[in-house]
Amino acid sequence: MRTINTKHISLVFSSILLVLITLGCKNKQYASEDQPINGNVAQAIKIAKHMVEITWTPILPISYNIGIYQPHMQSRGIPYSSVKELKKLIRFDVSIYTFLSSLENSYSKIYSEDLRSSKYNSENATAFYGTVCSAFVCYAFGMDYYWPTYMLTQHKDINHIPIANLLDIKLADILLFPGHMMMVTRIFRDEYGNLHSIEISEAEQRGVISTIYSRDQFEYIIRTKNIELYRYNKLYSNTYSIKNPLINYYLTFPGGLDIISEYGDKVSIGERTDLHIDIINDNTYTDIKVFRDNKLIMSRPIKESRVKVGNVECGDYEVYMDNNSTLKKSTSLLFEVINNWAQCTVLSNQQVQVNFSSKNSTPLYVSIVDKKGYPFSYKDIDHNDISSGNIIMDIPMSDKPLYVKVHFQGKFGRVISDPCLITK
Hints:
Layout: H1 6-29, E1 32-33, H2 39-53, E2 55-56, E3 62-64, E4 67-69, E5 75-76, H3 96-102, H4 109-112, H5 133-140, E6 158-161, E7 174-177, E8 180-189, E9 195-204, E10 207-214, H6 215-225, E11 228-232, E12 259-261, E13 267-270, E14 274-279, E15 287-292, E16 295-301, E17 306-311, E18 315-323, E19 328-329, E20 333-338, E21 341-346, E22 351-357, E23 362-369, E24 375-380, H7 383-388, E25 390-394, E26 403-409, E27 414-416, E28 420-421
Parallel strand pairs: 13-20
Antiparallel strand pairs: 1-8, 2-5, 3-4, 6-11, 7-8, 7-11, 8-9, 9-10, 12-14, 14-17, 15-16, 15-18, 18-19, 18-20, 21-22, 22-25, 23-24, 23-26, 26-27, 26-28
Helix pairs in contact: 2-5
C-alpha cells in the first residue's frame, strides 16, 4: 500500500493558499484608477497617448541617437530627434500624416538627411522629422510652441507643486529634472486611496514611450533624479480649451499614393525651397502635371522617377500624373508654399525690431535662438503686430551669436523664416 505524505500535501496546499492570498491582495491594490478631472486634462492625455501608440514602418534605415530604426520593422511611438534648428517637430510643425507619408518615399528627407552631418548645426538630432521631451509635453497641453526644460519654469502658467506626499500628484502633471521632462498619464491607487503605481509618458532617446512604475520605483526615481513637480494651470481654467491646427487633422495615413514629394504629402514649405517630386507608382501614366492655385504651370512627359520642380513660388499646389489616351489619373500630391519674409534691425536700447510679412499664412510668433536652434526667448504676434508688420523684442543676454526667426502657420503645418543675425 502506498503511503500518503500528508505533510507534503499540507505544504503544497499552504503554498497554493499563499499564492491565492497574494493575488487577492494584488487585486485589492488595484482598487481604482484616477480619471481626468475635466476635458482639458482628458484631451492632453489623449494626445500624449496617441503619440505613444502610433506605429510606423520605415522602408530604409533611419538613424536615431542610440541606434537605428530598421527597415520593414514596425516601430512604436513618434521618433526622437531634436529638430529645433529646422523646426520639423512632428505635430507642432509637421503633421503625423506628412511624417507617415514621407516614409513611403525612398528619396524622402527622413532617409536622405542626417542632422548630425556637417551641413547642419543641430545637437542631439538625427532624423529630419521627430520630437523631443519638451515638445511632446507642450504639444499635449495645446501650447503654441514648446518650452525647453531650461525655460519651462519661466512660463507664467506653470506652477511648482511641492511634493509633500504622493497624493499631491495629478494626471497631466509635469515631472521635471535638469535636461528632461515627463508627463503623468495614468495613476493607480490601492483600496485606501494611496498611490499604488503610476504611468509616465515621455519622449526619450528611443522615441515617445510610456512606462508604469510601482510606488517604490517611482519614489526612487524622484529621489535619485531630484525630480520637481509642475502643473500647467490653464488645464484647469474654464476659459481654456486645447487647440492646435494639427490636433484633429491629418492623424493617420491610409497609404497608396502614386506620387510623393521628398518632404511627404500635404506639407507646408517655405519659398526658395528646391523641391523634388518622386514617382512611387507610374502605373502606365505618361505625363506629370503641376498646378499652382488651380492653374497649370508645368506639364511634361514622364522620363524618370524623380522630377525637379525647382525654386517654387508661394501658392497652393496639386501635382498628379495622367495618361492622355486613357484619361487615367493618379492620386494627387498636395503641398503649399508659404511666403515667409522677415528681417531684423537692432535698436539702440538693446532691443530688436523684427519686420515680417506673408501673403498666404499667419505669422504666429518670433523666437530668438542660437546657431543650434536653442531658444532664448519667444514673443507672440497679435493682430496689431500683423497690421503694423513688425514687433519689438528685448535682446536676451548671451555670449553667443543670436538669431531671429519668425514662425508662420499654414494649413498643413508651419515654416520659419531664414534666420536673421542680431548684430549689435
